[in-house]
Write a structure and sequence with these properties.
Length: 387
């Protein structure tokens, strides 16, 4: 739960917003406090805003913030606001985020209203839809009691947001000047991800919810599943190296401590493998991309399209994945690994959301093939466009 003294001022804000408070969803580290015991300490509050609903409320958020004596944080471009907490050296800081699809064409901000912006958030629409309501109570700044409710991001979209943030920070997309800060942030995002997943009582259900959230955005789902594979497949993957750095930070390591660290890495590796899709998913993903890469893999493309043509299946069909060439499967595997010998075999072990994500990716890749007149003439049935 949000700690004091910040809770008092969250309650103050929720009361001032009235019904519009339903469109303010707690995300980030504060959301973790509703999910697990002993969540890391943080004082800033990140709100994901449902800007479409807010624009229909007829409420001036800027006026409410001014009434509550919030000021724009210098350099934040109107998406961070803060005020001092009387009688303490602490501040109350809030940050607004909103779904990425509403951002301005020229920058990373979403305009909520005049004077109030939000930082564009990839996956924000999913996190808005996948939220839950918690009761919250306490005292207002005037000492009176107040009870209300607050919407909080569910664990599976929270993990999605953490994975996306981890990837951005680890790749240091902001440049060398931010390298040290980004590395520190990447460590925190890894630790948060592991903490949230480790708190789930039913990993099978959590994985189902995690994958199912991408029902309306398979492209984003594929991006997130690729991040999982890149950062958490092997015990030496970057995610575990970052987690080890987080665990040992500022701690002297003797032999016993190093053994404990190795045991912890082994534990969280097993935990994360419960969320990472099986290798057949990634084998089929590579097969889709290779079987549509006419410039580099022309022979595979020809075999794939011939399989479709001969079976009377067009590439836009849900059955098209079944006809991926066996030669496209397998790839470079570690010693002792078993590779998938047919697309049908690989698909049998995947979940319905995983198959849907693969199919959506195939449709994206297929557009390049449909644009090739020579291929359309050779394989008209396979590459026909449905009306």
């Amino acid at each position: 739960m949000i700690p004091e003294p910040q809770r008092t001022y969250v309650l103050e804000l929720l009361k001032a917003l009235g019904p519009a408070a339903d469109e303010f969803i707690v995300a980030g580290a504060q959301a973790m406090k509703f999910i697990l015991e002993g969540a890391r300490t943080t004082k800033d509050i990140d709100f994901l805003l449902d800007v479409v609903c807010l624009r229909g409320q007829g409420l001036s958020i800027a006026a409410k913030l001014q009434e509550l004596r919030y000021q724009v944080v210098a350099g934040s471009q109107n998406f961070q606001f803060e005020k001092g907490i009387p009688g303490t050296a602490e501040t109350m800081r809030i940050e607004f985020m909103a779904p990425e699809e509403f951002k301005r064409a020229s920058d990373f901000r979403v305009e909520v209203e005049k004077g109030v912006h939000a930082r564009a958030c990839t996956g924000g629409s999913i996190a808005l839809a996948e939220s839950t309501i918690y009761p919250i109570s306490g005292r207002l700044p005037d000492g009176s009691s107040f009870e209300t409710s607050i919407r909080v991001t569910k664990p599976h979209p929270l993990v999605m947001l953490k994975l996306l943030a981890l990837d951005d920070r680890y790749r240091n997309i902001r440049g060398p000047a931010e390298a040290r800060h980004d590395r520190d942030e990447a460590r925190v995002h890894v630790a948060d991800t592991i903490a949230v997943i480790g708190a789930q009582p039913n990993m099978e259900k959590f994985k189902g919810d995690f994958e199912q959230q991408f029902h309306a955005d398979a492209v984003l789902g594929l991006r997130v599943l690729k991040i999982l594979e890149a950062y958490f497949r092997e015990s030496t993957s970057p995610g575990f190296l970052l987690y080890e750095e987080f665990v040992v930070a500022d701690k002297p390591l003797d032999r016993d401590a190093r053994r404990e660290v190795r045991q912890e890495i082994a534990r969280v590796h097993g935990l994360m493998l419960g969320l990472v899709p099986v290798k057949s998913f990634y084998e089929l993903l590579a097969a889709v991309e290779d079987s549509c890469d006419v410039e580099r893999k022309g022979t595979l493309v020809g075999e794939f399209l011939a399989n479709l043509q001969d079976s009377g299946t067009d590439i836009g069909s849900s059955a098209a994945l079944q006809h991926l060439p066996a030669m496209a499967l397998g790839g470079a595997l570690a010693k002792g690994d078993r590779f998938t010998v047919s697309a049908s075999e690989g698909l049998r072990v995947l979940s319905e959301p995983e198959i849907r994500i693969l199919d959506a990716h195939l449709q994206v890749c297929a557009e390049g093939l449909r644009d090739r007149t020579d291929l359309v003439q050779r394989f008209p049935r396979a590459l026909r466009r449905n009306a």
